[in-house]
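This section describes the prediction task in plain terms. A model, or a person checking by hand, is given the sequence of a single protein chain and must write out its three-dimensional structure as a string of tokens. No templates, partner chains or ligands are provided. The sample shown here is typical of the held-out split.
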Amino acid sequence: MPPVNDPEKAKSSLKKLRWAKKVSDQALDRMLADGKVRSFAKNSFILRYRDRDRGLFGLLTGRVRLSIPAESGDEFILWDLTNGLWFGTTTLIDNTPTSYDARALVDSEIIEIPRSSVTKVAETFPEIYKYLFADQALYTRMMYGWISSMLFHPLKSRLAFRLLVLIEVLGGREGSSGRLETPMSQSDFAKMINGSRQQVNKVFRQWDDEGIVHFVNGQYHVPSIERLVLEARSTDP
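The expected answer:
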């Protein structure tokens, strides 16, 4: 596996992580020095559920899906990641088994920084643990909110929430409006909210009629983010 050939670009990407923003450049440089670039073909797995002792992964090119697999062969989609996004932080501190699959949706290039390299650098720069701990605490609170939404909110509210998060994470906010350019199908959205494709289709058709969300030329257009926020907060079925 070749080393990272553009460390500054990789570091700039790494600094998009909440915890890495607060870590010194010297610490990040040390971690990236052990990073290797790997190529993954479409539909190949970067991580498998319950893998151990892997590390931190940064997406250089391509698209990666994180999902929780079921014994039935189905999956619950967590995120679809694009260039510049990272994953793998949840196993860095205590080397717990990976709780999801990570699969390349298209041919992809990924930086992999071994967990051993992160922990070694953290011995010299202990603030890494401090900020990782804070990041994981925030992640845990978000997961509790997510579980609460799945248990107690209707499907339309769950769909609105996931659409809002995707727009925010993927940089689709444009003032009071927003857009999401994604090859995700309605079946994919269904797997994100524990619903069916037919239910998701019904909600999108209703939103289109009401001017809340329009699907045009492969993009989801949200004329008013505020209206979609109200949908996410609604308890009406």
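For orientation: The domain at 7-149 is CATH 2.60.120.10 (Jelly Rolls).
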